[in-house]
Design a protein that fits this description.
Largest sheet: none
Low-confidence stretches: none
Mean pLDDT: 87
Structural class: mainly alpha
Number of strands: 0
Keywords: Membrane, Transmembrane, Transmembrane helix
Order of helices and strands: HH
Helix content: 55-70%
Shape: elongated
Number of helices: 2
């Protein structure tokens, strides 16, 4: 099993990439809200649960899904 598909950017699929971006953006928003507003909205932490779930689904697809077929669109 290729565990680099969990962390190596070039091995991540789109689900994993979107989830990590979402986690980073949520964390950034969390810090901004905490320091400049003084609180975060109720339920804000559910974002982390959702992004983590999205990442896990993407990881399962990446590890156990069939590998991408070669993208050869020029059949002669």
């Amino acid at each position: 099993m290729d565990y680099s598909k969990l962390y190596r950017p070039s091995a991540l699929n789109s689900f994993q990439f979107i989830a990590l971006t979402g986690l980073l953006m949520s964390a950034s928003a969390h810090l901004i809200l905490y320091f400049f507003v003084g609180h975060t909205p109720a339920g804000f932490n559910w974002l982390y649960v959702c992004w983590t779930g999205f990442y896990i689904v993407g990881t399962l697809i990446n590890l156990f899904g069939k590998p991408d077929e070669p993208h050869d669109h020029h059949h002669h």
